[in-house]
């Protein structure tokens, strides 16, 4: 028989197997529980029949009848009640048997010599024979009303025997139809519930499968709105997030190709044009040739910077650049960065300030941190008009509270703020994307590949830190960097 291939059929099949196993185990347990109850009922039924039968036996014995005559007279009613009647003496010798096969046979019944103890006026037990295990109830003759002469006769014991298997068979026959009917109804209900449960699990997965196929065909806008169950809902939420990431990655890749093509096409066109002018003699004087050579040199330099930036960003993202974890005092670092930008700030008539706490030390790579801060200061000076202000500051900041009884983790907060034109909200969320430059009309030069902030973010993340931007159009922009403090252990 082939295995089911769909998840729904496998779930329903597994539920059916579990249901059938549970019903079978229930039937076996019920049977095992019924055996002691049937045995108890057998004893009670024998006792109910045995006491009146014994009184009649002892009464007929007082009339002078023999054991055989008594059994012949009472054996029919005993058989009709599903029992076997025996008369046994105190030595265990069978004097009479309603079935006739045990007459003269010795049976070890361990009967009491006198009246059984209260509260039961009889003795119960079982005897194992070739016919199987028989349960009996024995009543001695002392219960009967005997005359003085009769009391001198040997003591008789009246036995009623029964096989519990017959009682079990009868009981099973009585409850089997009800049990089977109940089992069939329970099976049908369980199958229905199993189908509903399997459908509730399989249907959302089918929707996820279809959505995955849509994404494979290029439809990245596919989103799932699954509400239950919780595990499937979490899977759908993760799928939606993945779809958005794939769409963003695809868009970023498309933008990357377009931007790289554009940024390479412009200098290549210039290089091609001016080199052609040199070759065909269009640049026929010294100044024209010098100008052509200068343009070729500048455009080649621009291409080299672009390629180097792309390679650096790729290496950082791939984890090929290992950041040092040396102690870096922020005070000297910030002062050095400001001094390098002081001439530019003076030429642009922009006030450049620095403010720092004396003992702030971070764990990092000084060269790459200088690269980040220089890039942020360069952008701030580009976007700040004459008479504006650019500030660089650093301080210690407890960012993450420690566990109970522990000190909070200390981070260094570095801020670069300006009073420039600011960044629109629609651009602010994308400024760390590679090649994203927003509105070029807002820049003073219109130059730049748009990779500086992307590289800065990767460098800060490689240090275990964070970088974010805040901006208000017309008031200015503020970049905030969080870096972990330097410790002897790390």
Structure description:
- This protein is α+β, with helices and mostly antiparallel strands and 490 residues long.
- The protein folds into three domains: 7-170, PAS domain (Beta-Lactamase, 2-Layer Sandwich); 230-317, Helix Hairpins (Orthogonal Bundle); 326-484, Histidine kinase-like ATPase, C-terminal domain (Heat Shock Protein 90), CATH 3.30.565.
- The chain is built from nine helices and twelve strands.
- It has helices at residues 7-62, 67-80, 164-216, 230-280, 286-317, 330-347, 366-383, 425-428, 452-462, and strands spanning 84-89, 94-97, 123-129, 132-140, 156-162, 326-329, 351-356, 361-364, 389-400, 409-418, 466-472, 476-484.
- The strands form three sheets. A five-stranded antiparallel β-sheet has the order 2-1-5-4-3. A five-stranded mixed β-sheet has the order 7-9-10-12-11.
- Strand 9 and strand 10 (409-418) form a beta hairpin.
- Helix 1 (7-62) runs antiparallel to helix 2 and helix 7 packs antiparallel against helix 9 (452-462).
- The two termini are 62 Å apart.
Could you outline the blueprint of secondary structure elements for this entry?
Elements: H1 7-62, H2 67-80, E1 84-89, E2 94-97, E3 123-129, E4 132-140, E5 156-162, H3 164-216, H4 230-280, H5 286-317, E6 326-329, H6 330-347, E7 351-356, E8 361-364, H7 366-383, E9 389-400, E10 409-418, H8 425-428, H9 452-462, E11 466-472, E12 476-484
Parallel strand pairs: 7-9
Antiparallel strand pairs: 1-2, 1-5, 3-4, 4-5, 6-8, 9-10, 10-12, 11-12
